Amino acid sequence: MPGKKAEKTRANWLSVLEKHKHDADAPGSEEYWSPRLDCASRDELTAIQNEKLAALTPFLYENSGFYQRRFDRLGLAPTDIQSLDDLPKWPVVDKSEMMADVQENPPFGTYTTHDDDLWAKRGWMMFSSSGSTGVPRPFRYSQIDREYWSWANARAIHSFGIRPHDSMFICAGYGPHVFAWGVQYALAKMGVACIPGGGMNSDMRAMIVERFKPTVITSTPSYALHLGRVMEEKGMDPAKSSVKTLFIGGEPAAGIGNTRQRLEDLWGARLVEFYGCTEVAPHSGGYSCPASEAGPGPVTTHLMEDFQIWELVDDETKEPVPEGTRGLTVCTSLNSESSAQLRFLVGDYTTYTYEPCDCGRTHVRAVGAFAGRADDLINLRGIKMYPVQLEQAVRAVAGVGDEYEIVLNTNADGLDIMTARIEHAEQSAGDLVANEIRSRCEIRADVEVLALGTLPKTEFKAKRIRDERGD
């Protein structure tokens, strides 16, 4: 059972969260779900973050064995981290620490503040990290988290212009993954009808679009491409369907110009995007806005600073980088009873701007959206690149099919090599793709040109990189 200190710090943490909960049940205006928060001044946002942070650190210390041990090991007390200026004292937390904690404290670990007692009293749902390597990291969330999560996602989805007259078809699995569940609970709060598409195959989903005419489809970008092609094979035209908005998440797309254009052309619809992760209270941390979608410059992704503290750090030193410098995303969660993490290394590359957006929102934005995770780094003969760069190269050549894969292996001479397998009607496209890869990634790659429709179709998240090199 939790001790008195743990209960006291929990009560204080929840009271601070409740204090800064505005426009929770209905939108405050047509443009913003919460005008007071979405358009708060920089000083107001900093004050909210500092007040929440001062309540967060003692709460973590008393309610999470992982955090208490880490504070003690670093020789820090909760009172040492009370404001944004104090954050660099706390080294970033990465997923390997969480994996080790799960192994030492199975099955749930101690990195959240949700124990068996809380699970019995007001447990809501358990999710698991979606990474394909390492030890799965479970996260138990409470009913209080559900409410905060629904509110956060409603604020983001409202910014897309989605309203109660819309209907949304959720083309995603309903397993222990966060995306579909978070969207569905937000839609309930917004009064927006939804059609859950979990467990359906693509033929069935194509017929749902044709028959019930949703105005919004939610999926990964890879699956939106696949579903559109399935409709075409069945004699349907996605661009003439009822779908006006593609609401995507799980993979980069908004910041990859050719991928975004391909999707929007296929469906005759606009593309909007969510950004977030399972670890730091997995509601929407980032989201599109109308100004970013319409502007001539790079897309930008809004980050909710009253809910989370977003930093960028150097990929090697993990020290903060100056504004305008590319770095890895780090997040402190300020909107959760169960998973209020302190400086968790999300690990996506981007650049921040604190300039107010033309939409009127004042929170920090990621310029060009997000360019892929540090975990996805490809090192080929000492040259480093990311899957996003390779996708940009492949998509830059007209006529390339929707599916492609990058194969890494070692030749007979012991040299690591790369082969891009693409679909195209012309063999000469191979030279064009090879030139694009060399230009963007500074590496020579072989290109294998296959007939259109040869490669397996993506059903969920695309796995474009196949590493067959030996250890």
Keywords:
471 residues; alpha/beta; Rossmann fold; GMP Synthetase, Chain A, domain 3; 11-stranded mixed β-sheet; 4-stranded mixed β-sheet; 14 helices; 20% strand
Report on this model:
- By secondary structure, this protein is an alpha/beta fold.
- Among the domains are: 143-373, Rossmann fold (3-Layer(aba) Sandwich), CATH 3.40.50; 378-467, 2-Layer Sandwich (GMP Synthetase, Chain A, domain 3).
- It contains 14 helices and 19 strands.
- It has helices at residues 4-19, 35-38, 42-63, 65-74, 95-104, 116-122, 143-159, 178-190, 202-212, 221-233, 257-267, 290-294, 387-395, 429-441, and strands at 123-128, 138-142, 167-170, 193-196, 216-219, 245-248, 270-275, 286-287, 300-303, 308-313, 327-333, 344-353, 365-367, 378-380, 383-385, 404-410, 416-423, 446-450, 465-467.
- The strands form four sheets. An eleven-stranded mixed sheet has the order 4-3-5-6-7-8-9-13-12-11-10. A four-stranded mixed sheet has the order 18-17-16-19, with helices on one face.
- Helix 3 crosses helix 4, helix 7 crosses helix 8 and helix 9 packs across helix 10.
- The chain is globular, with a radius of gyration of 23 Å.
- The termini are far apart.
